[in-house]
Specification:
Elements lengths: L1 H21 L8 H17 L11 H26 L5 H31 L8 E6 L3 H13 L4 E7 L5 H8 L5 E3 L4 H7 L4 E4 L6 H11 L5 E4 L2 H6 L2 E7 L2 E8 L4 H37 L4 E7 L5 E7 L10 H4 L1 E2 L5 E2 L10 H8 L7 H7 L3 E3 L6 H4 L15 E3 L1 H4 L11 H9 L3 H17 L5
Parallel strand pairs: 1-2, 1-4, 2-3, 4-5, 12-13
Antiparallel strand pairs: 6-7, 8-9, 10-11
Helix pairs in contact: 1-2, 1-4, 2-3, 3-4, 10-12, 10-13
Amino acid sequence: MAILFLLDGLLYQAALWIAPLWTDRGAVATPGLHLQLGLCWLLAFLVLDVYNPSKGIRWSQEGQRVFMASILAGLLLAGLLYLSGGILPRGVFIVQIGIAAVLIWGYRIVLRLWHRWRRLRQERTHGVNRVLILGAGDIGVNFAREFIKASWPGLELAGFLDDDPALDAAASESLQDCEILGTINSVTDIVTEQRIRSIVIALPRWEYSRIAQLISELSELSVNVHVVPDYFDTAFFNFTVDTLGGIPVIGLREPAIDGFQRVVKRVVDLLLGSIAVLAGLPLLAALAAAIWLEDRGPIFYWADRVGENREPFRMLKLRSMRMGADALQGEVNETDAAGNVIHKQPDDPRVTRVGRFIRRYSLDELPNLWNVLKGEMSLVGPRPELPWLVEKYEPWQLKRFAVPQGMTGWWQVTGRSDKPMHLHTEDDIYYIQNHSLWLDLQIMWRTIAVVVRGRGAY
């Protein structure tokens, strides 16, 4: 990380020297300006935690933080120049931010590709942090899969240790070039032979007593020790280590989206949500008239839903069913071969003629924008669920409530009603684990095509 820090600083300063060559050759960056830029860059990159490996484990996450930090550094510099009376041509200022972000993100991509190429050639060099996983069960294999996918420079997966040789075939099949190197009791010898610098304990809950013993044994070795607790994986996404009254504690109900990301997400919701409301008013008025003319019934429908942290709220929709439809839900529900309840049918007799049209193109969800502006929903996120279906959820499915529920999401753009939401929670889990502003923008863009085609909605 020290090398990344140094390179980023040099490239950021180089961008200020290159920018005038493209815009204003008469502009000169004084030493004082370089100093101001360095301070702004340092503050922005540290505030956004760019050098925390756990925050940029995927290339898209790292890129998002680099670009956001570059923009923040530029804003800080603009404020500092205003207060100090400094002068920097506007064109140079803007181009410098772009050049710095591209250079910093570019060399990091090259570094990742180089590291991946080395790993494919199975090259081992000094200075690489070799990681050994204790436990080749589901926990260990899942951790290794994510580890390999991230391909973080300077880290290399050595293999597994496990007492069950039958797991070797499963691990090798799921992960190329990863095998069980021995039993867990041989950890001391393997650490020496394989030049291990980090150990990840990925044993199931019932092995907690053994985990304590292993941590005691490993304390005598010069290795870093980490634990992947499968208990947290069964119900939670994020947890923190903190102190309460001076006593170390682990926080289990930490939000899956951190403070900065939540602020950005809320700003985007308010900005785009307000624009959508203003642009959609004429269409909403026309749809409201059509609904009322068909049966002279209510235009809007308040639906009870479960939101973030399983908080109940009332979601506003255009009415697409005849009045009293909720009382007939039991007559529509069907059960598949596995005993799962299927509550939405393509030929639901309760849906009105206008309702079939607005459902096909998801126009009945336009009033959801009211919930977005109120903060009960987001533009992008897992779709709010029916309370009676949440009662049937398995514990792992409750993870989908770790973020604000949305008007559209990963599930909607990959299947919609063709994939019953409560039977495909893994789509929402994928979104939460990979959340970023860039992913939100991708989902919103793909939603337009899905809605226009009317695919999978009824």
